[in-house]
Structures are given as structure tokens and as C-alpha cells.
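Fold Annotation — chain and its backbone

Fields — amino acid sequence, C-alpha cells

___
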Amino acid sequence: MNFARRRLGPAAARLLTLAWLAPSWVGMVARASRAPLPAPAQALVIDFDAGSAPTMYAGQGNEAAGVYPALVRAAFASIGQPVLLRARPFKRMLSELSSGEAAAGAVVRTPERLAVADYSADYFEEKVQVFQRADASWGFEHLPNLRGRRVGVIRGWSYGAAFDQARARQEFLVEEVENDPQNFSKLANGRLDCVLATEMAGRVYLDRPEFAVLRARAKPLVVIGIALAVAKSQGQTALLRRFDAAMAALHKSRAVEPLIEAEIQRARKTMP
């Protein structure tokens, strides 16, 4: 070896050393090239109520459509998080939230739900109004006005703590259905004294001829926050905070209002 180094000189010896090491470098590069790439983010499955147009309803192929799915989809798209948005009957949506099978895309906080789910910040304020026939002999100004009345609601919904507690005390008779058109039809036919529905539902349905006799009271029953909920067992609090930031940026950009209007017009054209 000493003779080889004297004959080749220092530079040549270094080249010889590199040649000895080259096979191991090639092996390292080959192993690196075979290393798996980072997995893409897994789609978050999110359920929405199937019967509450225009805020959320079943679209084509049972995909969730409406204002709330559009807002949630836009926020997650801005942070590169894939989502699968499904339409479900409201009680099934709550069941799948509790089991961890899916998140719930638009729910109101209740003590029971807070026990099983983590929540985003409220991303929308929903105005729930009292709808009556135009010829009703009584008006609505505050909750005690409902005492003794037949009130139409959506099955499984919470309408705020005050209403839910008065309902538990049976201060009025509650009749549940799956969607707003069923309630509006019962009200128009005189089978209910009033209906609780969102302001946006009134914008979609009350311009139909069969509901021309209905009116919304000026004062809402409640203005309540709508949020995204994920089962605590899923450990997604960090993702919820990223969602909050994305939704705040969406509101700040003033992209929300035109999106809402587009979804209301879409619901008017597509709902039977």
C-alpha cells in the first residue's frame, strides 16, 4: 500500500478511496429512492343534515349540498385537507358523530354533544324564525307566546337552551318532521299554529304559491352559533384550530356572502 501511494501520489490515492466508497453510496441512494413518500392527508368524513335546504340537504349521489357544506368545503380546501361530505338524516348524523364514524358539519352545542365531541369555533350565526299563517290571531314576541301552541320543528334539532327547556316542561305541543316543506305544508293547512325554521329556509320556500299564506315574524326565536364537531375519540383538536383559522380568513375575504347567495339560488332551482 505504501508503494502504491508513492507511485500514485496523494490525488490519485484520494480517487482510489472514493472508488472504494462508491458502491456503498450507490446503495444508500438506491435505498433512499425506494423509501415511501409521505402519505397524502386522509379525507375527513363529515355528515350534514339531509333535509334542511338551503343550509344543508342531500344533493346528487347523496352528497351534502347547501350553504354549510359549501363553507366547510371552501375552508378545508384552503388548507389542503381533503373531505368527504355526506347527507344524512339528522339523528343518524348525531349517531355517527358519537361513534366517531364521521364528523358533524353543522351542529349547535348542547351539554350532551359537548360530552362526546370537540368543536370548532362558530362559523355561522343561524337565525331561527317563527312562521305563522298571515291570518293568525296571535303574534310572537318572546318564548312565552308559544305556551299552549302546536309548534312544528325538525326532528332532533336543538333550538337553543331556553326553547329546549320549555319543551321539556311541555309548555307547548311539539310536532316533529324530517324537513321544512313538511312543516310549512302542515302550517298552511292549519294543522300547526307555528313553525320554527331558519331565515334562509323562509327565503327559499315562502315564495312558492302553496305557501303564500305564510309569514315570518320579525323577531327571531333565537340566533344561534353553528359549528363543526368531531368525536373526542378522533383527537382532531389541532385540525379544528386550523379549520377555525381558515374559516376566519374566508370571512375576512368577503367570499362568504356571494357563496351564500349562490347556494340559496341553487336550492331554489333544485329543490322539488
User: Anything to note?
Assistant: Residues 1-8, 15-39 have pLDDT under 50 and may be disordered.
